[in-house]
């Protein structure tokens, strides 16, 4: 895992969508999952090297708490507990602009596309979405999710863009 790159990615995501009322820890977990696994499907390499475990609530990043602790300790992100539609919600609000020197412009464009595609979903919607993705479905509870499983995704989940036919 590239810890510094992951820190910049999480800080960036918090800066972009952390202030949205529906974006809490659950949504962040699923956004990170789709960013990592969609990037792997397209590039056959990880974005930041995060690993995900299958838990009943959906894919969960293994190193999130440590990265978040770095961001809160440095004063870059503030963790806030709120209520959203009667449920306790943990939000992460960026207090500073994220450094982005470890993320390429192509990676940032990819992250922005993922946020545009997924960040409007609330926790229930994005969790349901992640629960139907082949990598999650094919993994037993408690086990690490193998990124290679993205190559068996259903068309509705695949982000691979096939080149046009050259007839």
Mean pLDDT: 94
Helix/strand order? HHEEHEEHHH
Q: What's the Cα radius of gyration?
A: 16 Å
Between the first and last Cα atoms, what is the distance in angstroms? 42 Å
Percent strand: 5-15%
As for the number of domains, it is: 1
* Major β-sheet profile: 2 strands, antiparallel
As laid out across the biggest beta sheet, the strand order is 1-2
Tell me which oligomeric state these chains represent. Answer: single chain
Ranges with pLDDT <50 over ≥5 residues?
none
What share of residues is helical? 40-55%
Total beta strands: 4
In words, what does this structure look like?
This protein is an alpha+beta fold. Helix 1 (3-17) packs across helix 3 and helix 2 packs parallel to helix 5. The protein contains six helices and four strands. The mean pLDDT is 94. The chain has a two-stranded antiparallel ribbon with strand order 1-2. A two-stranded antiparallel sheet has the order 3-4. The chain has one domain. It starts with a helix and ends in a 30-residue tail after the last helix.
Characterize this entry briefly.
With 167 residues, the protein is of the alpha+beta class.
